[in-house]
Design goal:
Largest sheet: 2 strands, antiparallel
Number of helices: 20
Shape: globular
Mean pLDDT: 87
């Protein structure tokens, strides 16, 4: 392994972060707010650390898989560390633990916050906070690969280490073409939503920052009451539509736009994703009607937004789901665990793995009934190999285990069981809000500092899909 090559590619990622820090500093300067110096100093520091390896290390068009893996994992960790700098320099509620939590939450598109007063942040810092969502949504390394010129086989190695194997299944293009598709869909959805939200009455700043958070399925808002602060039904409908779209595999979205929208319905995973969301919305609407909202229209409005928000791991809020009945909360916890499709910006276990899991259960039942039968698990009329089934089931088991362990550790620190479990599940799934003290209109400020570090680890594990971070921690034992 060549450390200097790894440092060079990490340098590119740091320079990329420095660009957004500079843009944030410019916004701060235009608004003459108090975050200019913290953002400007952060951009200079980040640029210097990123530029040194670019100047002194020659480029390499070929890298090994191990080097690619180290570049990807290190890029995530160092980007989160860079994100801490402007928060700590600005001060306010940002202790180092709080700043780390907020930065990790941003880059992993979790959207959980320690802030009691979001609106106290100056516009420059709010824009940087939203930018961390947008940078992390499509993947820091994917962004870098999309805008850089030809990199030889290094591009393919980095792409394979950044993207989940499930996410790559629906792409039938070269690596370069796939990256272009991802960027076009990502940027296109962001621009379109920004324009529509502006037409609905939002300011350009609010429209852009909320579009960053929606398309990245992040959830950071510029308001203390999140989307509820706008009380704008048209804006809520637009955000719901784009949350749904952002939860679908971007390759399938691109094919639907360029070929036929009906192609989406050919995917069994997308069908399951949309139908499960519809059933969940119906169940929650019926449950909260009367007990929380007297009118059917209001019950449908808030149930739809809240369930889509957690089910796509976005984390926006228009109501306080902490006061909803236990049944509604349990339905939402299921979607906090599952979330949307692989190949989207969503977190969680992913609908793809849930589909594979249930199909493998059906396969096992049929094998018990008919031991001599040859039964195959098929998704989209393609056979799923046993190693993929094993990996999916193992991932789900490991995912639930980590959520349970984190929950136990939080309760040992004095956190109530509902807040501990839902907060652990919400951070692991990069969803953001849970229930109890960490509900949709609450925050994570009451979690003890050690608990914030545990939940930050949850966010990173969920974003890199567990095995990435585990392999990084055991890198010295690799052959």
């Amino acid at each position: 392994m060549r450390p200097h090559i790894i440092l060079r590619y990490i340098g590119v990622v740091l320079v990329f972060n420095a660009v957004f820090l500079t843009i944030s500093a410019v916004i701060s300067a235009v608004n003459r707010d108090s975050s200019f110096l913290p953002l400007f100093c952060s951009s200079v520091i980040t640029l210097l650390f990123g530029a040194f390896p670019l100047i002194f290390v020659p480029p390499a068009r070929q890298i090994t898989n191990k080097e690619g893996f180290m570049i990807v994992m290190s890029s995530w960790l160092l980007s989160c560390l860079v994100g801490v700098i402007p928060y700590v320099l600005w001060g306010g509620e940002f202790s180092f633990a709080n700043a780390w939590f907020e930065s990790v939450s941003g880059f992993t598109t979790t959207g959980a916050t320690i802030l009691n007063d979001v609106e106290a942040l100056p516009k420059g810092l709010l824009f940087w906070r939203a930018s961390t969502h947008w940078i992390g949504g499509i993947g820091i390394v994917v962004f870098m690969l999309s805008v850089l010129p030809a990199m030889g086989s290094a591009r393919m190695v980095l792409y394979r280490n950044e993207m989940s194997s499930l996410a790559m299944d629906n792409f039938r293009h070269s690596t370069a073409k796939t990256l272009q598709i991802l960027l076009v869909v990502y940027v296109g959805l962001t621009v379109l939503e920004t324009v529509l939200l502006t037409l609905c009455g939002m300011t350009l700043f609010d429209a852009l920052t909320h579009s960053f958070a929606t398309i990245a399925t992040g959830g950071f808002s510029t308001k203390n009451l999140s989307v509820a602060a706008f009380d704008n039904l048209a804006a809520e409908i637009i955000i719901m539509i784009f949350m749904i779209l952002s939860g679908i595999h971007f390759g399938l979205l691109f094919n639907a736009i360029t070929e036929s929208p009906l192609d989406l319905w050919k995917s069994s995973v997308v069908k399951y994703y949309l139908l499960s969301m519809g059933i969940g919305i119906a169940a929650v609407t019926v449950n909260i009607h009367g007990s929380v909202f007297p009118a059917w229209g209001a019950a449908l409005r808030y149930a739809s937004f809240q369930l889509l928000s957690v089910g796509t791991s976005t984390g926006f809020a228009t109501a306080d789901s902490a006061i909803w009945p236990p049944f509604a909360q349990m339905v939402m916890i299921f979607f906090i665990l599952q979330c949307s499709c692989a190949g989207s910006t969503s977190g969680g276990i992913k609908a793809d793995r849930v589909v594979i899991f249930w199909k493998s259960v059906i396969k096992r039942i049929k094998k018990i009934q008919h031991p001599s039968a040859v039964v195959a698990v098929k998704v989209n009329n393609e056979i799923v190999h046993d190693d993929v089934i094993e990996m999916s089931v193992l991932y789900i088991a490991l995912y639930i285990t980590i959520v349970f362990i984190a929950s136990v550790l939080l309760t040992a620190m004095g956190v109530d069981s509902l807040s501990a479990f839902s907060g652990s599940a919400a951070t692991m799934g990069n969803v953001g809000p849970g229930f109890g003290t960490v509900s949709s209109l609450g925050n994570f400020s009451r979690i003890p500092d050690p608990g914030k570090w545990i939940l930050s680890a949850n966010m990173l594990l969920g974003r890199v899909e567990i095995f990435g971070l585990i392999l990084l921690l055991t890198a010295r034992s690799w052959k």
